[in-house]
Amino acid sequence: MTVSVAGAPFWTTPGLSPLLAVLNGGGEEARVVGGAVRNALLGLPVIDVDIATTAPPQEVADRAARAGLKAVPTGIEHGTVTVVSGHHGYEVTTLREDVETDGRRAVVRFGRSWQHDAERRDFTLNALYAAPDGTVVDLVGGLADLEARKIRFIGSPDARIREDYLRILRLFRFHAAYGDGPVDKAAFSGAVRLRQGLLALSHERVRAELLKLLLAPGAAATLAVMSDAGLIQPLIGGIADARAFARLVEIEALWRAEGWDVPADAIRRLAVLAVRVPDDAERLRGKLRLSNAEGRRLALMAGPVPDMADDAAAQAFIYRTGAEAARERALLAAAHGRPGMERIGRLAAQWAVPRAPFRADDLIALGLKPGRALGAALRRAEADWIDAGFPEEPGHIAALLRAAIAADEGPL
């Protein structure tokens, strides 16, 4: 049976058909390849459209120039030229074969065999091509695996992994995103046998792949499998809490069902998986080359959450911590088994955090001179204002300020 993606939404992306027309003919052939074909067949959004071609990179650039299209040699050593057509950028890559690899980077040579190009790719469902008329070309059994939601290496799993050890992480990321049922047995066995190769990867590549995995629909079940096999701990340099991760995913969904804005977030999920104290956050920042902002977020999430007896206590915590940080800590605390954290989630979403209705100038107007005593009195007034439930009445505020000054002066 012929399978086609000609009716898929991405097929009408501006510039795609004209570019395929430019690249096809004159002894050369071009096809859409990889994720666009896979996602279209699954009914999922298509983000990027990549094209494979028999034409060498210079020929691609020459054809683009003759057609009035902009060509940028973004990965020329690997045969990739980005062509802008219809205001969209398309990566056009010459068919390739791997000559040698050290498990991190490959030396390739250009070829003209679609079969060889397919066989050098990682998984069968990523080696599907779409001809210019939309007909899907399957050379390695990808359609059957796609229908079965099975992530299977092309050929020998060990050989594919040794070409690039990042494929171990990609196996589990793709399984979490597209797979159904257990991880393919042969692929899993190869990943476990060769897991030491993960330690040779750059921190940046591990970071990018791991954060994508944490957001995949099947991340919780997949991480549990990886943790049991010892595949997560070396990457994060510590213990992985897959159970807390699974609870967090459930709690995020429950809080969203309540109407609270709790989008899935990779850094929050990383925190529940691997952060219990601030030192863990610092370790991860270096281990995964996180940005300073990401590292600070992790450290904030590791902060304590006091017991919440009532809404007043929750409001005080939210005010002192900030609504976003309070919600994040509450989510993590709930995932680690703390009851009653919904109170913080609800208030963080619904309560308009007030600003203190007084400043240092108000204390100065009451006779307090600038200096350490002023700062101490201001802090006491704010603490009393919080304890009083954030009152707004001018008379109440004035009484708080006078009491803060009197506390510093002591008994007459």
UniProtKB/TrEMBL annotation:
Needed cofactors: Mg(2+)
Domain Poly A polymerase head: 30-152
Domain tRNA nucleotidyltransferase/poly(A) polymerase RNA and SrmB- binding: 194-239
Keywords, ordered alphabetically: Magnesium, Metal-binding, Nucleotide-binding, Nucleotidyltransferase, RNA-binding, Transferase, tRNA processing
CDD domains: NT_ClassII-CCAase
Short name of one Pfam family: PolyA_pol_RNAbd
Cited InterPro entries: Bact_CCA-adding_enz_type3_sf (IPR050264), NT_sf (IPR043519), PolA_pol_head_dom (IPR002646), PolyA_RNA-bd (IPR032828)
Family: Belongs to the tRNA nucleotidyltransferase/poly(A) polymerase family.
Name of the protein: CCA tRNA nucleotidyltransferase
Species of origin: Xanthobacter aminoxidans
